[in-house]
Amino acid sequence: MSLDNSKDLRIVFMGTPEFAVTILDELVRNNYKVVGVITAADKPAGRGRKINSSAVKKYAVEKGLNVLQPTNLKADPFIKELKDLNANLQIVVAFRMLPKVVWAMPSHGTFNLHASLLPNYRGAAPINWAIINGEQKTGVTTFFIDDKIDTGAIILQEEIAIEPDDDAGSLHDRLMYLGAKVVLQTVKEVEKGTIISKGQEWNMEYKMAPKIHKETCEINWKHPLDTIYDFIRGLSPYPTAWTTLLNGEESLSLKIFKVIKEEEQHDHAVGMVVFGKKEMKVAVNGGYINLLEIQLPGKRKMHIGDVLNGLKLINPVAVV
């Protein structure tokens, strides 16, 4: 069925982080009627435990959009509020898994934007894992939500190259703007009644993208040069790769944000730190990982030259 114009679409948008704000803004700027915005509940954050709203809520309030912040997506009061919005399309970007009573509600369905080329990299951290695994391309996918995670019928996809110096932050931003474009295209297909979706077919070549935890962010310096380089940039700027620096009697936990790799044959032991006045690099199999931006405990992120100005290193130094 074709809709007469965009006024016939009544959209509920669900999302939480900055990534989702860009997509919501694309809908607003194109004059789509967003009748409700569902986002995470406010919660305390930072050292002062000040109550903080999600990026999506801040944007929605600024634009005068109707905001709902349910803690239980199956609760009767929320389901009634959602029904009363009389939406015929729901769009989900970086939110939570929805119960069927929610995703099956609108007549035109509920679609999700995922930052990978599904079925590859289903899960919570597709941007990070694509870089960590050394992929040369990724992309975005819109798909209809079903009762499992990231398994629904695909609507549209568009791919993008992963550049050799991309980190998770730079790739996140490029996928965010690409995602806004693809979501808009998907909504227009809904308007025209020309949606053609295709079921996903899984095979063992595809990879998953599970949530990343602090313990899995520790660098293994015994891995090859390229593997370590991809691991660090795939976790930068968040949740951030880390290592332990042994400096005499002292052990320091370092977060590592930015590095370059140097392919070179050497005789240093793996994990040995080679440093000068403005340089600090770690010997690995196949070369060196040259540290450019790191963070010491209790300090802000700093360029390595500034770190070395204030840190007395005892030779030899090693990382483990």
State the CATH architecture of the largest domain: 3-Layer(aba) Sandwich
Tell me the number of strands: 16
**What percentage of residues falls in helices of 4 or more residues?**
25-40%
Classified by CATH, the class of the largest domain is Alpha Beta
What does the average pLDDT come to? 94
Number of domains: 2
Strand order of the largest sheet: 5-2-1-6-7-8-9
Distance between the termini: 61 Å
Please tally the helical runs, counting DSSP H or I stretches of 4 or more residues.
8
Shape: elongated
CATH topology of the largest domain: Rossmann fold
Major sheet size, sense and barrel closure: 7 strands, mixed
Uncertain segments: 1-5
Which H/E pattern describes the elements? Answer: EHEEEHEHEHEHEEHHEEEEEEHE
CATH superfamily of the largest domain, called what?
Answer: Formyl transferase, N-terminal domain
Present the secondary structure layout.
Blueprint: E1 10-15, H1 18-29, E2 33-38, E3 43-45, E4 50-52, H2 55-62, E5 67-68, H3 76-84, E6 89-93, H4 100-103, E7 110-114, H5 126-132, E8 137-144, E9 154-161, H6 168-192, H7 225-234, E10 241-247, E11 250-263, E12 272-275, E13 280-284, E14 287-295, E15 302-303, H8 304-310, E16 317-319
Parallel strand pairs: 1-2, 1-6, 2-5, 6-7
Antiparallel strand pairs: 3-4, 7-8, 8-9, 10-11, 10-16, 11-14, 12-13, 12-16, 13-14, 14-15
Helix pairs in contact: 1-6, 5-7
